[in-house]
Amino acid sequence: MTVHLRRRSSRGFTLVELLIVMAIIGILAALATAGYRMVRVRGAEAAAITAMGAVNQAQFAFSQTCGNQRYSPTLAGLGVKHPVSGQAFLSPDMTADPATKSGYVFVMEGTAVLDAPPTCNGLPPVTSYKLTADPTHPGTTGIRFFGTNADRVLYVDTATFAGNMPERGAPGHGTEVK
Predict the structure, then answer these.
(1) Is residue 2 in a domain?
(2) pTM over 0.70
């Protein structure tokens, strides 16, 4: 007696195999999306740190060459060209009040000097300043908040510095960015 075994033809994938492959692809896509979002957030935060450093450098150059040891009252003031060199102190993408760049909103304030002569570009100077950077959409464009002032030290925290960043000295919260 001969027993004939039937062979199963292998013409393709079964439904279960296709579902397993689709589940694996879905998991990989979810991981990639989460990773991509974190990379975007970190990139926006790095751009905010760089922009705040650029404003600090621009304010220092302004005070040394144009402000008679005082600072520009606004970000737009740092975009005004120096009458001798013809160069602005800050790039045009940061010369709005407030300025929005890379998912962050930058706001600068300062204490006006009432009896001081105007700066070389005609602006009324300030004795000191404070600059804050908040994400435009917290959690999406950035997780951390940044602040700096006339001391040119950059601070970071998970809470905003708006309204509580002093014009000189350390704020009441946050840590120094090293």
Answers:
(1) no
(2) yes
Q: What is the pLDDT of residues 68-94, one digit of tens each?
A: 999 999 999 999 888 888 899 999 999
Domain membership of residue 49 as a residue range? 15-176
| 6 in a structural domain | no
Phi and psi torsions of 126, nearest 5°: -120, 150
Q: Find all residues with CB under 8 Å of 134, minimum gap 6, and list them.
A: 104, 105, 107, 142, 145, 160, 161, 162
Examine residue 10 and state whether it is found in any structural domain, yes or no: no
Instruction: Evaluate whether residue 150 is within a structural domain.
Output: yes
**76 CB burial (10 A radius; 0-12, 13-18, 19+):** middle
Specify the number of domains making up the chain: 1
Residue spans of beta strands (DSSP E) within the chain: 99-101, 104-112, 126-135, 145-149, 155-157, 175-176
Q: What is the pLDDT of residues 14-64, one digit of tens each?
A: 888 889 999 999 999 988 888 888 898 999 999 999 999 999 999 999 999
